[in-house]
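2024-03-11 09:14:02 INFO receiving multi-entity request
2024-03-11 09:14:02 INFO entity count = two
2024-03-11 09:14:03 INFO echoing inputs for audit
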Amino acid sequence: MRRLLPSILSLLLAIPALPSGATPVPSSSPPSVTSPDRHPAIADTLIPSGPVRHRSRAEEALALPGTVLYLPFHLVFVAGEIAAGAVWEERVLDRARAWLTTTDGRVGIRPLASTRIGAGAHIFYKDLILDGDANLVSSRGQEKRQHHLLTLSFPGRPLRSGPLGLSLQFRQEPKETFFGSGHNTPRSASSAYLQEEFSFNITHRRRLSRALSLNALLGYQTVDIGTSISQLTPPIQNRYLPGQLPGLDDRLHHLEAALLLRALFVDVPGSPVHGNRSLISLGYKRSIDDDDFSHFKLLIRTEQFFELFYRRTLSLRLGTDWRFAPGPDQIPFYDLAFLGGNEQLRGYRRGRFRDLGAIFAAATYKYPIWKLLDGELFYETGRPFHQPNDFTLKGWKYSWGAGLRLWVPRGLIFEQLVALSAEETRLIFNFKADL
Amino acid sequence: MSVKALLLCSLSLLTACGSRLLSPPDRPFHPDDRPIEKPRSRDPRLVQEIIDKGMDYQLKQALDLPRTVRKLTGHPYQALDVDPFDEAPNSSWFTNRNGRRPLSLEEIHRGPNRETGPDTTGPWQVISLKSAGVTPGMTIVDPRGHRYILKFDPPDFPELASGAELVASRLFHAAGYNVPENYIAHLPPSRLTVAPEARIKIATLDKRQPLQERPMTREDLEQVLRRANPAGRERIRVLASRFLPGTPVGPWSYTGTRTDDANDIYPHEHRRSVRGLYVIASWINHADMKEENTLDMYDPERRRLTHYLIDFGASLGSNSTNPSNPRRGRANSLDIKDSLLRLFTLGLYVHDYERAPRIIHFPSVGYLGNDLFRADGWKPMYPVPAFENLTLRDAFWSARIVTSFSDAQIETAVAAGQFSNPDAAADLVRFLRERRDRLGRYWFARVNPLDRFEPRGAELRFADLAILHGYADASRTRYQYAVHSPQDELLAEGTSSRTILSLEPSWNRFDYVVVSLLPQRPNLDAKPILVYLRPCEESWTTIGLRRFD
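2024-03-11 09:21:47 INFO inference complete, emitting structure
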């Protein structure tokens, strides 16, 4: 067959050097062959008027079906070239950003897209008072999520720049979901509520070293729970009687004090291979009326990165989150520790499991696909607890998944994950352009 | 393979392969010096080139049935711009230099340069600045009125980019390609003055507005100099690249032809000189082969284009702003195949370049590891369609050029880089020698390496390039030959250990004879070469030859 193929090709396509087996026909007169750098004399008349074809017309005809098949893809590639050219060469994103901002850069609007808060817009106004910022983030996501956040801060972005910051914030979440407290709450027990929160915070940030920073916060917060606008999930007021669920019936006012210690001992923040990143936060919320809702909050997270081989990295993440109410005080249901969402136990929706405490662990295997693109596989487990003494290895919930992450050395740009659990499959999309 | 089998193979090309092979190759060569109007300027973008050449072209090739069948059956499309001797004749793309006749060491050292560099007897007027991009630079006019582009070395790696550019341009020029005149100069910053007409474009705070043009100031110049010379040295080593003669009309493409150039009749991916660039670029490790690093210049007087290769700062052990690394030359920048392999093996597949350490002995010459170098596995940073059409015949043509460089010629080319550390220069020479020999060993073991056919009286002399360069053992080599008349009459056959074949005087009764030659030795997988000889007075003349993949 291998010998026959060239013969067939020769007949069809007139390819030279074909074994035909026929008796060779003598060449009556070998053509005059020459090369100008060896034999300078050559006639211009030999020059063809158009490009020299590299194959016969028969071959062109044979290639036609492939060409037809290729055309739609070609159009896609051409569109891609135009789009890529627009982004990189014509600076379309930069220019769009400029068009969405006033000439002095003080007021602007930005589109938002994330599975965490849905799709919406972020409106900002800088130099509110001297160097302050006003931010309005408003978005509509899936049925379960909506998010409206108004922040006034001084100076702008208090947690990033300047040691001292003031912020005023109004947050409205019209479609929050509560599934009950405990690790065995059925999915059917879900109910929806509206949470409106107003807070005023003074923050102080101190960089202890290149890798360590300490944030202190002192603030006032008031939270009101109302009726959700959700059409699919029954309102929480229908499921719980007055007084049955702490924090449901009253507008609560708190003073809050918190300390947050953050450590970042990793080699490349955008895609760590070695090192550790951790945070520990301790806060106290004190009711400023007689509602007995004062409580402590403790949050610990740590993630250790191990290079397995050639930038293939295993990271182990451990975290715990606890609420302690002294004496007869209670914890508002919306302030309970929770699992589910986009950070821990990602195969479950946000706030799926709530209780006074939660422990979770995750193992993530990350491997390079391209220079700035990683693949990732993760396996997570977690369980809410009512108190530390209840700790048991039974009843833990599991979640696993995979995804891609695009990064730059400073941080993550884009992440697309598929997270699975016994209850559902979630697609998580995060776009963090503002690095 | 037995002698008999080889002979059969050789003869089969003549007899079983049909009458076509009994005639010498008839390939009219078309000179490309017809006067033309100035073509339109091309302005391709890198990102578009990556999509076009890296994805679009790849899919098009994959769906091209005749091409695929040809590749599978060992009949790839051959280069079009070759003469009856399977050579690329001189053209506006390529000039036969060291591959045809060894250049003198002085010629190698001079390269394309026609003068001694920018005139240092007076100030250099800066007419434009390049503050963006990976390396700072500027355009100057010297007292003679000649324009140069000045490029600076990365401050942490002095001599790296300029040395690489100098050496690579000398080697490419000696190989036969058109390159700019490059010089090393040691510049006191005070020599630079801002030309009165110099203007600079700057971005405004409002990004909606186009870049604003204003007169260039000394401070603008100082800013660029501070980037290039943060240590504030009294003299800065710069690479001065003289403006090419003529009018630039943009880069040339690695595919197709220029529709507005009547001389451009061979699709570039089917040009021998462009395909063969693969082997030469792999030798010099010139992986940054994007279209932006090529340039067409229009000569208004001769009214024709000349096709140049430019910008070799990212070649040899240099990556322009830092030393090269093991990945360069082993994978494209966006290597879809490698990425998919890692994606679907969940990262368990580790490429050799990931495992290789990046050891740099001399910062001035960068990373010169050759452990991963594979003659057929070298990859430029961006896919080059012409390289994907490379055939064994193209590879032989360019491997012959690469191996034509002697050790002394390589040392001379490296000396042009003016490296201050002789050990660094010696390491670069070692790098080039090793790669040259690997290329020669690899390609000469896959294509019939017989060349330089010279009829002398009643003898046909030829050279076995593999033996000539020490890649094969002469004592273990025999040459199988067969001589046929145009009518396929077997005139002689046999084996010989010499690279001389006797030609019977009685054969001159034929218009020409066809000599089939095949070297036999271990580890050689080649097909016979056919040499067409015509009687000429008392001797013979070569009128063509055929090589086979």
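2024-03-11 09:21:48 INFO post-check: Residues 1-45 of chain A have pLDDT under 50 and may be disordered.
2024-03-11 09:21:48 INFO post-check: The longest strand of chain A covers residues 191-207.
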